[in-house]
Amino acid sequence: MIESDPLTFITLTPLVVGLALLVLPYIAPASMADFTRKIARSFSMGIALAIFAITSALFLGQIGNIDWLDITQGQYVFQNESVILVESIGVRWVVGVDALSFPMVWLTAMLIPVSMLVEWDAKKGHIFHPLILIMEGALIGVFVVLDLFVFYVFWELTLIPMFFLILVWGGDDRRYASMKFFIYTFTASVLMLIGILVMYFNTGDASLAGTLTGHHFDLVSMTAQASGNGLIAGEGLRHFVWILLLIGFATKMPSVPVHTWLPDAHVQAPTAGSMLLAGVMLKMGAYGFLRIAVTIFPESTVVFTPLLILLGMASLVYGAIVCMGQTNLKRMVAYSSVSHMGLIFLGIATMQPLGIAGALFMMFAHGIISPLLFAVAGAFKHHYHTLEIGSMRGIAHHSPWLAGHMMLGWMASLGLPLLAGFVAEIAVMIAFWMTFGWLVILPALTLIITAVYYLTSMQRTIFEGGDPHVGVLPDTMHREEPRDITWHENAGMFVLVALTVLFGILPFIFWDMMSDWSTEFMLETLIHAMNSQGVKP
Amino acid sequence: MLTTEEMEYLLPEMVLVAGIILAVLVPNLGDSTFRIPLTRTRIPIFIGGTRFKTTSNPRIPARIAILAFFVAFVYSFLEIKTASGEVGGVIEITSFTRMMSFVFYGALLLAAIATTYRMPARPSARAPREKDSELRTEALISALMDNRRQVDFHILLMMVGLGMGLMAMASNLFFMFVAIELASLAAYILVAFHKEEEVGGEAGAKYFIVGSVASATGIYGMSLVYLWSGDLDFDALAASWAAMDGLDPFAVVGVGLMLVAFGFKVSAAPFHLATPDAYAGASSPVAGVLATASKAMGFVALFRVLIEITMPEEGEALWFVLLAIIAVVTMTWGNLAALTSENPKRMLAYSSVAHAGYMLAAIAAVGSGLGDSSTTELVLVAIVFHLTILVLFKLGAFLVLGILETEGRSHRLEDLHGLAQRDPLIAGSMFIFMLALAGVPPLSGFLSKLLMINGIVNISAGTGSTNADAIVPWAETVDPVFWLAMAIVLNSALSLFYYLRIGLVMFFEAPENAKPLRKTLHLRNTILVLTVLTVFFGIGSGAEYLLDLVETAVSAL
What pLDDT, in 10s, does the model give residues A261-277? Predict the structure, then answer.
């Protein structure tokens, strides 16, 4: 199965194994239950590593031998023989990846073992790690599934393990945060569901259609139909559906003004939870937006470009300014995510291959860097029991490794050259300049604000201790001996640091396929839409 | 007299009648004899006297009921694809009727299983003696009452089943009303069954009074309809309605009054006001039956009147606007009220009001007359599918409360606190039921809600002007039915709050009483089976199979 249908394998295995590990202790006989509990943690890690190995093998060509630069628009590799799930309404199990989704799949497969490693000593590990494994299945499912019904199922499925991660392992205010998280994103996605349903009933491919309804959820066929003469007749309805989709995706991303669930969820979530939330779950929004809203309704995207710029700019500037006022480390990092996600909208709004590729690389780079930031913030909470910036100073003396990781992470996030974040930012900026000229000053100035809050927060925590040998320890330590991070935290962060540097120096590992995808997307889809709307490319 | 063939059509109902008779007879079997006058010969007549120990076992009535419901349930299920027949001019058996009786008997079967624990059955119950202490006397009396009431309860339960089964098969308005009353009267008593508790008696009385007013209104409406058409057969009524020139006041008022009666049965606003009280006062399995089977019964009646009789060939139905308004009010009211409920039973009651609103919205979309026959069928499939799977998770949720009820506690949110620590599997099941009620994929509640929304969108979204080049002009031209879909979606999001709250307190709050739950083997296993089915019918072959059944059923409507 791994050879013939790897994507189905890497989607379903974590789900099945995770669920089995969760349920078995309660229904198996006592000795078996104890055994299951004992191995749950290592077994989850083993599965996660195996899936990472398979995903890497897919990329490097050991399985399938794919030339990632040679995927034409609308074509998917590793596509399976579609399996009918619900025939009467035309639901199928179809999976496939292209240059848009594969980096995300790889990112997920990489982040899961890392986040497990960082929280290796989590309380109730026999539940915690299987939950993360379920999360992995759901997340990969979102990226590989090519049937909108199943896509929606996975989209919502990601909420449930995350809800429990926040609820059980979260901070003091976790009830509020988990409820807010669930309700916010659920509300947005049911609106998106209406959009999907309007699309659904306009589909016409009789060979895929459900017996009862005469329509189907197949994304590939929808895309093909859309590139012909538009999926939905009537521009008003098209725009309306596009807006509904935007609400769903922008809330997940999140963009101002629907971002308010994010800081709460992040601050309360356990470290692994925020790592996955920031690393992959936010990218679901951007991915869905590109895959569904932009691809199927390019004209509406062109028409609503000003809205995208507005949202992107608002997120970018507002996020950065709010960051400056934060005294809570995790909240600051959370708002910086809002700010960076704004760049994705800006990149798409440029309508340049470079801008879109920059947005794609932003998704990827942010997926490596922000988990590092959250791992650092989590380590602060773990070892210093506080997240208040300024309540601890000069801790580089006590925790040199933590300080090192923090420094690199912070630098990567503010866009230091040779680190992964820089590539994405510069690409978006150049594209923005090419399209909008000197307006680029606005986002560029925001990057300065970014530098300000990152540098200040760093200076006020790891440096500036007064007495170089003691520093200022927060009151929450209660005379506990300050320690450095544990080996597993260190190992997890080290992987992320290494990747940040690797993709900063050699971005073309993924950049080439992304830029290839966006160029072709531009030529095949967006150009026509822009012509038809009378916008000069 | 019924012919053999007709007996075969009505086998499930026959089994229920036999069950009722058995439930009366068996516990009363004894060694009494009859002395033939003027002789010394005594003939044993087996009724009365000292009762046999085996047959007077108080578990017997529950077993009879479970067996009867099980046979009826399985037979209905097997007959769904093939059923067709006609008995006595008032009963017509189709796939649809068997589908609905499958739902009814399934729900009642579960209630019968659950009730074994609600009323503990102790064969050793004896009358208190004088030397017994006060406390002991009280305990003995309650045990004794439970023993006797075991019989009553299950007879009533089978009566409800009989009424519902016959109701689904009725092809005549009058017969349908009689069957509904048979089911309802038995249900009123079931609600008030725990008369020693104040809340039980109050709930029963309230439910009975409001219910009988609703029935009286309905019967009055029916008499007006009879005045107008001179016939109460559905086919004849449909024909007269279609042939009606303009609007006949008798017909319109009659149908309107009947809608009040059925609106009460499905607990549509503003006729829902007795619902939360009734559910809160009834025992959990009974409340579960009211929320699933009884509601399905109301919807069958609505189908008959709205879709079969008064739905015109083309164009808008008379009741379209009214029903759409009622639907939106019902779902919003239900959800808002559920948000503020601190009693889990009341919360589930309001949630069932909200679900009625969703289904009414779907019927209203059919009434808009915008769809063709295939889209209409799609919407009806969605509603029947929803009614079917509602038995899984709505009744499942009530059964979880039923477990708590064996401890005498299930009327406060606090009673659910820390359930996850006391029994993780039951708490997990409850959480899954809640998510299914909220319509979170991939659970079965999602598919049915999706089908309903899909039906509405399908019917209405194409009505907007295709020339509109922006959202506002399009929104001005789209048929208002489209916004019903929006109303459902926003309400689902609203409802998530209280469903999640249940999950939250189960997993998060410390239990007031950390003891493990009472051992209720059958009930617990039933809940677990329902959980598995809730997931199984969510997506994939299970859902496909069930949809296929429902489709067969609806095409026979």
Answer: 888 888 889 989 999 99
